[in-house]
Amino acid sequence: MMLLAAAPRATAQDGDISVHAGLALSAAPEGQPLHRYSRPLHGLGIVMSVGVAGKVSSTTDLEGEVVLGTGISKRQQFSYNWTEDYIGQSRDQLFNILVRSYVGQSRSFALVAGGGLARMTYRTHSGVRTDPFLPGRPTSPLPDQQLTDWNLTLTGGVEGSLRITDRVSFAPTARVRWLRRPMEGGLPRTLGVSRYLYQFGAAVRLGL
């Protein structure tokens, strides 16, 4: 989800430390298609972020960010001489260190970049196998599968800041997240999960 933007610091009352929380819409595009598997996993989710930032200079903040999301979920299918229908899911949790660089002394617009670790969870459930060439088209349940992986993530984005009070600001945010997913095989590959997430939202920042 998105972390927030910094408010212009016109007074010393703003302090050098701030905390923030935000909500964002996260769009996951289709990943690479795989033969015999249905359309790659894609969709929209909601993410929330919380963080703490410290002022390094008049134009730079250093921030710790935690991003939690609902993930995406779609019904998918594998087909060969039989078919397997199941629900595929992907959920990411991010733990980042970000640098926020303000454009100008007003601190009303900033560029954000950084990275950290991503906890990526992939799952299939509610699966059914159908054998169309057997009498009566018998079906059988498929076992659920789940994989959790930790890997690198990078973040880039922009954000604005609209001061509400001396200590509180409202920050529209936009982020591009890159996650190093293991795409050689296994669930991330068969689900067709993209390495990119595009997030648009807003956050509230409180100066301490």
Write a structural description:
- This protein is mainly beta.
- The protein has one helix spanning 187-191; strands at 17-28, 43-57, 60-69, 72-79, 83-102, 109-130, 139-141, 145-160, 162-163, 168-179, 196-207.
- The longest helix has 5 residues, at 187-191.
- The chain is elongated.
- The relative contact order is 0.27.
- Mean pLDDT is 89; it is low at 1-13.
Give me the count of strands.
11
Low-confidence stretches: 1-13
Order of helices and strands: EEEEEEEEEEHE
Termini distance?
A: 22 Å
Q: Helix- and strand-based class?
A: mainly beta
Rg estimate, integer Å = 21 Å
| Main sheet summary | 8 strands, antiparallel, barrel
Mean pLDDT: 89
| Beta-strand content estimate | over 45%
Helix coverage percent: under 10%
Spatially, the strands of the biggest sheet line up as 1-2-3-5-6-8-10-11
Which shape, going by the Cα principal axes?
A: elongated
Number of discrete helical segments: 1
